What does this fold into?
Amino acid sequence: MPARYPFATSDFQKGRIDTYGKVWFVDSAHPQASNSPSHGAHPGTPWSTMHYANSRLGLESPVRTNLGDVVVVAPRHVETVTAAAGLVLDVAGVKWFCPMAGRLMAQINFTTAVGADCNIDAANIWLENFRFTGGIDALTGPIDINAAYCVLKNILTEDVTGQVTDFIVTDANADNLLISGWRHLGAAAVGADTAITIVGGDNITIEDFWIDGNFAVACIENVTTAAVNLSVGGGHRMNYARTRNAADVIFTAVATTTGNVGPNIFARLQDNAANITEAFVGAAMQFYTPIGIVNADGERSLDWNGTQSADV
It folds into this structure.
């Protein structure tokens, strides 16, 4: 058993790792890795890329759709995405999992073309413990979510070369999306619009986040199409957001978007100005405190001063 895996294959066979389907392995650094139909079923003979792994799951008999399969992506695996739809995850019900965190997480690096992206195009897909990196300036949406009931858990999105314009983008098909435990390390320089842009969708939840970047629009934006029952904040930990842009907006939504913002959101604005009220925009949403905002160094937070409910 290669030392890079912190568990044994027998752990899966004995039910110590929760799966009802098959377990597959991807590891770009393994000397026996190959994108071959005969590989993938054992950590000693893994597939080389997630792209190939997804294609094989779609060709297996039976096709691995919604069977509870887990694809274990090795620590330090690097998936390089160089074109639009360069990585497409379109086999429903598959969990993509890296068993390590921090800098040991599997990396998905977007480079070469500004439209390079990972398309999540099937329902019930789960990605956990992945580091997504912008390897070229002005990427236009490297994580593109277009399907329902998907989960992104404990992920890191990071500007490495230049600034990604909108790192995560969702469309109206991304109903019941859950993003939990998300860290975004944006560049301090100008160039980004948002960390996530949400276009429509029902019951989307973004919780336990830590976002930092220079956002010309907002850290979190809902745009173009109203979302229904959007939830931003809450979870089991604090939610932190910082914008280093003079726009000073943490969250903004279409006027008819419904849902909840908060509790436990703590925000840092760029300018020491009359910008507290304008930092959160959601005319048809409900806001649950605490939502604390600081707009200068050495100061304690001020509660967000939106309209307070009254016992009338």
Q: What stands out?
A: The CA atoms of residues 166 and 194 lie 5 Å apart. Residues 50-57 form the longest helix (8 residues). Residues 1-16 have pLDDT under 50 and may be disordered. The helical segments are 9-13, 50-57.
